[in-house]
Amino acid sequence: MLRSISAPTNAAFIVMASTILNMPLNVGTIKGLDCRSYGNLKPNALPIRPSVSALPYRRMFVVKASTNDGPMKKMGRSDAECEAAVVAGNIPEAPPVPPIPSSPAGTPAVRSLEISRRPRRNRRSPVLRSAFQETSLSPANFVYPLFIHEGEEDTPIGAMPGCYRLGWRHGLLEEVSKARDVGVNSIVLFPKVPDALKTPTGDEAYNDSGLVPRTIRLLKDKYPDLIIYTDVALDPYSSDGHDGIVREDGVIMNDETVHQLCKQAVSQARAGADVVSPSDMMDGRVGAIRSALDAEGFQHVSIMSYTAKYASSFYGPFREALDSNPRFGDKKTYQMNPANYREALIELRADESEGADILLVKPGLPYLDVIRLLRDNSPLPIAAYQVSGEYSMIKAGGVLKMIDEEKVMLESLMCLRRAGADIILTYFALQAARSLCGEK
Ligand code: PBG
User: Fold this and answer.
1) Which of 192, 198, 309, 331 is catalytic?
2) Are 296 and 269 in contact (CB under 8 A)?
């Protein structure tokens, strides 16, 4: 009896297949399969579309459940008769070997190079190429950064085409639902805080009824299995636009800021955050936040530390999105110098010993070497943040038709994975997941 295994019952195959990216797009089975496999936290989270493309997939996984089906249908002669015919010299017909393809006129006639290594052999067909692909990309790897505000409408962000400040009550829920439909079930929240609530000490950051805690509660109520990352830093709440408290002489006060960050992280955890992510670059904040969380009974809440966060100009569009530009100066006394590599190891050791669960590098593509450095020096999961400026450059290049936006998007994400990132925070999360699922 032949039994066909339907997609939802065989998770092992689904997971395996979901790691394939570079399948030719005409392989409809993979398109449908990928999409269905990604968001399988709830069995009915994704609509199983009875599409034509699902049919060959089912055929691929047909298994023979019983051997008592009787002999195969007889085609004519027996095995012995066929063998005897060949032995007697009656070789059956088969298609001829194709002729050697001709070269264009003028091609020089040369002796073959005597080389034993020809790496092109393993690249010569799509099947071989996908068999030997070392890195995979899946919506499960994405964390989707979302901007929220108190408003009812979604406000487009000029410097980030396709991104909006989403109304926390409506637009946000819709966006999260769309992301979940294609297997992106992790988000990170960035609030646009009303100016009137900003103070030098950023106390709104730990207001339990503030925008972020309120939004977390709403999201968790609607989507309990959604993984919510939060940003821990004072800049959206600071009247100075800095990640920490600014002293009269312009110095960013470390330990006092850490005190505030602990309260912020606990408030986010209380609201239901799964992963708190200090992006402030104060010294000692990971250990302090760990202790504060544990003291309040939040042992289960993870810390994703921005381990190597550089003082980068690639954050420009983000600061426009949140209206969070520093009111004076820059962030160079706490964020790292883009010229530095070894220094990331110092941050790595501190974060590891202080109890970070995930280590993050930011920005992403210009800092692939740092991602690889952390990957090779820590067993912890590594996150890469493809920041606003990286996103906007690809978008702009696409709009101007200077590059193929979709291909460059997928390549940039794959490269972050190749460098060693387990997860990627990217504004492309929804677009890329749709593309991986064969949707536009
Ligand atoms: C602030 C924060 C920033 C980003 C994430 N968290 C900006 C900054 O450090 O000034 C940047 C993200 C991006 O550019 O996409 N704590």
Assistant:
1) 309
2) yes
